[in-house]
Write a structure and sequence with these properties.
39% of the residues lie in helices and 19% in strands. It is built from six helices and six strands, in the order βαβαβααβαβαβ. Strands 4-3-2-1-5-6 form a six-stranded parallel beta sheet, with helices on both faces. α2 links the parallel β2 and β3. It starts with a strand and ends in a 9-residue tail after the last strand.
């Protein structure tokens, strides 16, 4: 069994979504021969949700980590709610962290849970350094590397972030 966590940009352009979806499918295909694939994701819009969908498409199981108790009500945008709800309902396990709000502390705790449970990390990441705000994709990649967790970077040609 291979447990793969995800970190990645939320603000992918519409044209990037099919590129990232294809790249994730190709990457996860490598792990389906090793037995059970388990994906672990916070299922935020963008990379996290695309990864979760790719895990299901590859026949894997999903673990969802929700950063705070009121996350669905207070953070998920109405147009993202149907996919969020589907992924929560389809997950094998849902871990809701005991934070009142989805603040920096909650996101850092969620990233820690992802990395504690992961054998590998997939980073849908353009390779830019950390912003200095903490908790971003680059920060999570650096933390995984410091922990000795292998990181697979997914950033297909033509992918970009919204300006």
């Amino acid at each position: 069994m291979t447990t793969i966590a995800v970190t990645g940009h939320m603000d992918l352009t519409e044209d990037s979504i099919p590129l990232v979806r294809t790249a994730l499918a190709e990457l996860l295909d490598q792990y389906t021969d090793e037995g059970t694939l388990v994906g672990i994701s916070c299922i935020a819009k963008g990379s996290d949700s695309l990864f979760a969908e790719a895990v299901f498409a590859a026949g894997g199981r999903l673990i969802v980590v929700i950063p705070s108790e009121g996350y669905r009500r207070n953070t998920v945008e109405p147009h993202d709610a149907p996919l969020f709800d589907y992924l929560v309902d389809a997950a094998d396990e849902v871990v809701v962290l005991p934070h009142a709000t989805a603040d920096r502390q909650a996101y850092d705790a969620a990233n820690s849970v992802l990395l504690e449970r992961a054998d590998r990390l997939v980073a849908v990441w353009n390779g830019e350094p950390p912003s200095g705000k903490g908790g971003g994709t680059a920060d999570t990649v650096l933390e995984a590397q410091a922990m000795g967790i292998p990181v697979d970077v997914v950033w297909p040609d033509g992918a970009s972030r919204q300006s």
